[in-house]
Amino acid sequence: MGTRYSARFHAPAGANLRLIVAELASGVTAVDNQMSNWKADSDLSRLNRTAPDNWVSISANLAALLVRAIEIGRETGNAFNIGVGDLVDAWGFGPSGSQRPPDVPAGPRPCPPVDELLEIDVVGSRARKHGPVALDLCGIAKGFGVDELARVLDRHGIDSWLVGIDGEVRSRGGKPDGSAWAIALEAPEDERRAAMGVVELRDAAIATSGDYRHWIKVDGKRVSHTMDPRTSHPLQGTLASVTVISPVCADADAYATALMVLGEEAGHEHARRLGLDAFFVARAGDGLRATGTGFFGGA
């Protein structure tokens, strides 16, 4: 996934640490091999290359995640759409390494919902497209990888752990001294990494989507790596980051992306409607404005 994973855990006496570490590595490697756009032989890349109306064998994990991605797309009014692979690549954020922004019309061109273009056979672990679409799971696969790390530690009966891939994190229990795991909320700053607050996390996952790590400048304007499926253009609003807490990390990852796309006002409304714990940081002049829902202090 182009980054590193981490796992902190307190194992009981006699635990086979070598086996646990090997299974953690195997778990995230499997997710990468199944869901990466950057690996030509991944399940996802094979599906993207295959012509419409042809079934492609995929892993059970990928089949399940595609179904969940489509569900979240429906829930968010297409603000989360995994069918933006060509857009991501065309704007220079994908595997082709393109350095020139595409020639695109100024007006909005909504991306069709993925459920109109993709059929998934979960029982048979296969999928097929019903039209041209390039799938991109960067808004949910990293969170799923974190959940895989969690499943490894749960299988070994470990009840005190913190696992993460880049900024997506999930915890079980607390530390042996009884304190919660402390997670820093990163300030949306380009040139340095700084914390703007700390969240105590127990038995939950947290993920952040933002415009301050991966972006380019086009005609002097900042262009985010996150695509707006409702317009087929990159995000260019005032919202700098959204953090979501959820029981599982794949959901937190996807909802954080969706709320970024929806924007501050509509994102707040949607988070309240779904009962999401969400933290919004928007640019306001030379400063920042932070607001939240649920756990983060909102109604």
UniProtKB/TrEMBL annotation:
Its cofactor is Mg(2+). Signal peptide: none annotated. Its EC number is 2.7.1.180. It catalyses: L-threonyl-[protein] + FAD = FMN-L-threonyl-[protein] + AMP + H(+). InterPro entries: ApbE (IPR024932), ApbE-like_sf (IPR003374). It is an enzyme of class 2 (transferase). It comes from the Bacteria. Gene3D superfamilies: ApbE-like domains (3.10.520.10). Belongs to the ApbE family. This is FAD:protein FMN transferase.
